[in-house]
Amino acid sequence: MLNLGILYLENQPDSADYYAKALCKLSEKNHEPNGLANGLSMQAYILGNKNRQEEAIAMYLQAIAIAKKANLQKQVANICNNMAILYNSIGDQSASLDYYLKAAAIYEQIKDSSSMSFIYGNIAGVYNDLKEFNNGYLYSLKGISLCRRLHTTHGLGSGMVNLSSSLISLKRYDTALVVLYQNKELAREEMNKTQEVNVLANINYAYAGLGKFSLIKANADEMMSLSEPIDYKEGICYALVGLAEYWSHQKMFTLAIHYADKAISTAGKTKLITTLRDAYQEAGNIEVAMGNITRYHYYDDLRDSIDEVLYSDKIVKNTQELDAKYSLNKKQTEIDDLNKEREIQQLTIKQRSTMNWALSSLVLVTALIGFLYNRNYRQKKRLLQANTLLQQQRIAELEKERQLLAARGVLQGQIGERTRLAKDLHDGLGSILSSAKYSFSSMKDNLIITPVTAAAFERSMGMLDHSISELRRIAHNMMPEALVKFGLDSALRDFCNSVDQSGALQLTYQSFDIEESSISALTAGAVYRIIQELVNNILRHANATTALVQLVRKDGTLSITVEDNGKGFNTSILQTSNGTGYLNLRNRVEYLNGTIDIQTAPDKGTSVNIEISNLAA
């Protein structure tokens, strides 16, 4: 089942999906975790290619959990690699690099050189997306060199694609074409249509750099013929951008802007951020060639807004990541040293036991000397055992510190990313939509339109208003402005009031002695997300009519109570739950050095009580 799925994966995804599901069914029946993880990973890969990214990520996480539980190290690394590829395709280079590094660490640990060659090429691709082309060039060469040394083609294709991307960005177009022509033949030999499309896209960029625009159309048509049968949306976008560029240089601007608009539409619908950026840039170039400077600035602003999302705060973020990795590695080194010391002590105990057996024969001759030696040995053994126990306790403490440090890094990254994205949405895209609305309103006053056209215009304005409202709602959900400006108490009161006023639930909010200055921004953000998750669970699952959210601060401890009169549930399901909602809730509480108690039963409502003492974390 697995081998059939792999054979069909690139060129007949529907057939591959059939065998992946059959593999999962057979593996569940026979309690085979390796097959189940492989089947889920293959389904996630297919979902990602169909631009159902959220479903793909959830399925990858499920596969990783199964592989980790079964201690399938290589399988965990393979799935992390696929997860990184997915995140890179939707423009989240930070998450992509994170999963690549996780995969690389495992491959290094198990000494899998073949997979390392593949990972080097993928890491090079991320550096290229971050515009760090020299790093991309170096990692590509490392991957290709390792493939050549191992006499394998695994990872050679992606390494050559990323090497050519680096060379094109460094304006070494002729060298890039030499690499790309070899890469094209390799992709055809392996019958990897996705890889062949990526190669053709880079060939077109090299042709454009050399000014050979007449050669672009044939490549674009070939890309389209390869991408459409396998529904490879990114390849379709590459082809459309190539056709737009070709017809623009043929002075056929109406046809050129038609293909550019189709590329923008396709990339926007499928959330291909980096491809959407290239489509905006090509549309702007066409408008300049037509003399439409205003439209050029419009597309240029859209491209800039994507660049800000992809590249802003990159240096600060990388510094924080390096610092966090250094701290984690330092803790891990201490744990390894303590483990080695414990092994030495255990060996010492074993050696002393052997000596005791050898000397026991002398007890018959020298009873007094044997007695004294035996007593001395027992005392030393007790001391060594006590010391070993202390070392084990210290290892456990360091492991917990390492986990807390990792959790802190995740929470800081989530809050920082939410704040930045909310600001970008509100200040960037929000401003663009508001400006568009103002421009349309001014246009209406200066034009003579029929009643039918006026009605259509008003409907369009209504849709634009709805888009602006929806944008503000999303930005608010990601990072409420009240939380940043006025603190936790005000943000929670606003959130609960909005739920209460919606009519979906009669929600009451109470707070006592909340001193904002003593609660760090990181803790406040985590507490807000905890309560938001609990209230959303009530709305989605509880069928409740009334609920209460209460915050009480006393003696440096923050107590949180969330109660509802809903249908309740059996708490035993929490022990086996793999849902990300409950796991996120539990991880946030544990990071804040808190405790959580859930009291519920079917038809008895639910009461969640959380106590947090780490308010200044």
Runs in which pLDDT lies below 50 for 5 or more consecutive residues are: none
Radius of gyration: 30 Å
Count the helices. How many? 24
Mean pLDDT: 80
When the domains are counted, the total is 5
N→C terminal distance: 50 Å
**How many DSSP E strands?**
5
Q: From N to C, what is the helix and strand string?
A: HHHHHHHHHHHHHHHHHHHHHEHEEHHEE
What overall form do the CA principal axes indicate?
globular
Strand content: 5-15%
Summarize the structure.
It is built from 24 helices and 5 strands.
Question: What does the model show?
Answer:
The structure is a single chain. With about 625 residues, the chain is mostly helical. It has 5 domains: about 1-105, Tetratricopeptide repeat domain (Serine Threonine Protein Phosphatase 5, Tetratricopeptide repeat, Alpha Horseshoe); about 110-210, Serine Threonine Protein Phosphatase 5, Tetratricopeptide repeat (Alpha Horseshoe); about 210-300, Serine Threonine Protein Phosphatase 5, Tetratricopeptide repeat; about 310-480; about 485-610, Histidine kinase-like ATPase, C-terminal domain (Heat Shock Protein 90, 2-Layer Sandwich), CATH 3.30.565. Helix content is about 75%, strand content about 5%. It has 24 helices and 5 strands. Strand 4 (about 595-600) and strand 5 form a beta hairpin. It is globular, with a radius of gyration of 30 Å. The mean pLDDT is about 80.
